[in-house]
Amino acid sequence: MAWHCWRWSISVVNHCKIILHNNIKPASQLIQHRYHSHGAATAIKDILQDLGPQFYADKNKIRFIHQPEHFYQELLAKIKTSKHRITLASLYIGNGHLEQQLVNQLQQASTESLQQNSPVDVHVLLDYTRGSRGQHNSRQMLLPLINESCGNVNVALFHTPHLRGLLKTFIPERFNETIGLSHLKVYLFDNDVIISGANLSDSYFINRQDRYVVIEDNRELANFFQDLVKVVSKYSLQLQPDDTTKMLENVTVHPYENNDNSQKFIKTMQSDVHQLLSNYKKMTERNPSAQSDTVIFPLIQMGPFEIRFDEEATQRLFASLNKESKLLLASGYFNLIEKYLTTILTQSKGEYQILTAAPEANGFYGASGVAGYIPDSYTYIARQFYRRIIDENLDQRIKLLEYERQGWTFHVKGLWYYYQQEQLPSMTLIGSSNFGYRSTYRDLEAQIAIVTSDDCLRQLMKEEQESVFFHSKDVDESVFQSKRRQVAFWVQMITKYIVWKFL
């Protein structure tokens, strides 16, 4: 780093019990007064501290990747140098040349570790429906890895409990993915963790813009995410060498083969996830690091299991934004739930810049069949939000922007929190959530909040934010009135009454 940084330390001291969703208190006006007596980082920690475990981090071992190809090279390099464990949690693995190279690297790392009598544990968690789509799918890509292992490779496929019965029988492939997914994006190598919104597919390695943060040499954080993935995998279908799947023998519940509407499955997995969060909450409270000025909060959202910590954290952050502060939000698939919209429009007092994808930068642009109309649905949703901004005379406080870059798609999600006219953010949220309906209620999501008072790390946050917003432009009424933004009436109606719950 070319500049010299002055660093100071802050202490976080409030010890709170882990809380279940139905005991979480809504963001209140009590949050606001903390900003008058504490620094930004401390105030944000106060907002988040009762939502689960918090991990102290070395700010010099956190960095952001800006480009997809660098993300891909980072994955390959870390697979190659891993000595003990590799965990990949993603929606799916693609079937192209780059993905094959990645799987080959995994296979080589596994084989060499076995030859050295020091096997690397390889654990892969994907979504069942997305990972099974088509004949040449993620499962086919990973079968050689399983078949050549000696028990050190596990591939788990999470199946939502909401896809069952007649829905499972009659909803066709690809459309069945709208019911619910495992959307986690965690890439873990020994004690290094990469949190991202990117999947393991070629476009995410070439020209689909996303976010990626690398946190190195943090065993506690790595253990947490390893255990989180293991809990989800425990309640997932296990891929067998012959491409069949089955539940673990010691798991007596099933996501869809039962007569109780999957309630036992839901309650059992919910209990295990809450126990995991509670255990790590107690552990991190016993081992505070008073010298660290950087804290990481994992924020887990599993709507089908009524685990809603990411939702509550996001809502609190929106509600806490005061007049002199600014929040920059990005979502490649803009469909904020009504609770967020109402808070932004009526309760928040600060400035918002909200970045979403232009139709041409939407991942579904040009798709065949019904999927080709999905960008129009997002255009309709964005237009409705923009008109609410105008109707409330909030266009000076809330700005809507679009990402448009020739030949690229936009898959970024997250936010950056700038406190009290400061030039550097004190916090960023990064992970898999798009803040929309399906992220909140249908899918499994994981984000982290990185909160810091260190100016060097804050500068890196700002550089990453500016990189994301570099290809953006302001949206106004003329954009929605242009010919290419005209949305068919039937698409508007279907989006308004049906489709928005699946986006």
Keywords:
503 residues, alpha+beta, 9-stranded mixed β-sheet, 21 strands, disordered N terminus
Q: Please, could you describe this protein's structure?
A:
The protein is an alpha+beta fold and 503 residues long. It contains 16 helices and 21 strands. The chain has helices at 30-37, 40-48, 68-81, 97-115, 128-131, 138-147, 165-170, 219-234, 263-286, 309-320, 338-347, 374-391, 437-441, 455-469, 477-481, 489-497, and strands spanning 55-56, 62-65, 85-89, 121-127, 153-158, 186-189, 192-196, 208-209, 212-215, 237-239, 245-246, 294-302, 307-308, 326-331, 351-357, 398-403, 409-410, 413-418, 427-431, 444-452, 472-474. Strands 1, 12, 13, 14, 15, 16, 18, 19, 20 and 21 form a ten-stranded mixed β-sheet that branches. Strands 2-9-7-6-3-4-5-10-11 form a nine-stranded mixed β-sheet, with helices on both faces. A two-stranded parallel ribbon has the order 8-17. The protein is globular.
